[in-house]
Design goal:
Number of strands: 11
Helix content: 25-40%
Order of helices and strands: EHHHEEHEHEEEHEEHEHHEH
Strand order of the largest sheet: 2-3-4-10-5-6-7
Shape: globular
Length: about 325
């Protein structure tokens, strides 16, 4: 793969320039760029700056609102519905997470349903946002139909990712961010961009046969067969159906129709770590759990046991020091 290694702050400024040129306010462009570079720093290139061109195209053709007016409707003491007015999902979800954190600090728990959103990027960004406020979080979003259900030959649910974040006292937070498919669609796109083959359990062709060529992938497979399929269903219920949005094949496609709003739904749940026990005890116990997992004897081929999110945190430290590798084509686009 030919490419460039770029300082993460430089990369962020390139994305901001592209978005502000597309009439996005500087404040919102900074948030979107921060979310995208966050993904690249963690080695999750599928959700990184390669998405910029898509967002600019959708903005230019009217399928995303560059100047949205957010609105919030209270739904009891611990819940609210956040209407993103079809703006950029990264900004919408960051704002909605702020509201959820406030609710949990006031009431012990906060639940925010998000409607009229768009693609929001890596969910780990928002769980980290909560962890930095010493708040437990769960974030999920539905996506357009791309994954065949267990036993099925055609797609129904999307990759429907879900993420959890748990703050610690001294350690970095535990962050689990995963698609309910074997991989996120963005990893297929990244493999196409970089000219790499993929494992044959990532996707299937139009006949339902597993393939190694990312260009032949028509649909994705759920992780763990019926387990991933079941969790994908749960995400669609708690996002689309719970908030009155679309679900399954009714969700508009990310690629193709760039003139129509996607009207995606997300769900955010936040919990004050001191809800049932002393908060300091919770944070200390998370540290203890991490330490004890690190002390587990590693299997052959492994140097140590890591907690969810830790490999990405190590990658982030490396890339902040040495720069972020991106494909040449993406670098050329950002500099055009």
């Amino acid at each position: 793969m030919t490419g460039k290694v770029v300082n993460h702050e430089t990369l962020k400024s390139l994305v901001v320039k592209k978005l502000t040129d597309a009439k996005v306010s500087n404040d919102q462009a900074e948030v979107v760029a921060d979310v995208l570079v966050h993904a690249d720093l963690r080695g999750v290139s599928s959700h990184g700056v390669l998405r910029t061109e898509h967002y600019v195209k959708r903005l230019s053709e009217g399928g995303m609102n560059a100047n949205p007016n957010f609105s919030v409707t209270k739904k009891g003491s611990s819940a609210m519905l956040f209407d993103g007015d079809n703006g950029m999902g990264h900004v919408i979800t960051k704002e909605a997470m702020d509201e959820a954190i406030k609710l949990s600090k006031e009431n012990g728990i906060g639940i925010v349903g998000v409607i009229n959103s768009s693609h929001c990027g890596a969910l780990s960004y928002f769980t980290q946002q909560a962890a930095e406020q010493e708040t437990i979080s769960m974030v999920m979003t539905h996506t357009d139909s791309a994954v065949v259900p267990f036993g099925g030959a055609e797609p129904f649910f999307g990759t429907n990712p879900i993420a959890y974040g748990f703050p610690a006292k001294n350690h970095r937070p535990i962050i689990l961010d995963m698609a309910t498919s074997n991989v996120a669609l963005g990893k297929i796109l990244h493999a196409r961009e970089t000219g790499k083959d993929i494992p044959d359990n990532w996707g299937v062709d139009e006949k339902g046969n597993p393939v190694n060529d990312p260009h032949l992938v028509k649909n994705l497979l759920p992780f763990g067969g019926p387990k991933g399929y079941g969790l994908g269903l749960v995400v669609d219920v708690l996002t689309g159906i719970l908030t009155g949005g679309s679900f399954g094949p009714g969700i508009s496609a990310m690629y193709g129709d760039y003139k129509s709003n996607r009207e995606l739904s997300h769900l955010i749940v936040t919990i004050d770590p001191g809800l049932f026990i002393d908060k300091n005890e919770f944070l200390t116990n998370i540290d203890q759990m991490i330490n004890e997992l690190h002390d587990v004897k590693p299997a052959d081929g492994f140097s140590s046991v890591l907690v969810p999110g830790e490999p990405e945190q190590l990658k982030e430290a490396e890339y902040k020091s040495e720069g972020v590798p991106i494909p040449q084509s993406i670098f050329d686009y950002l500099n055009s």
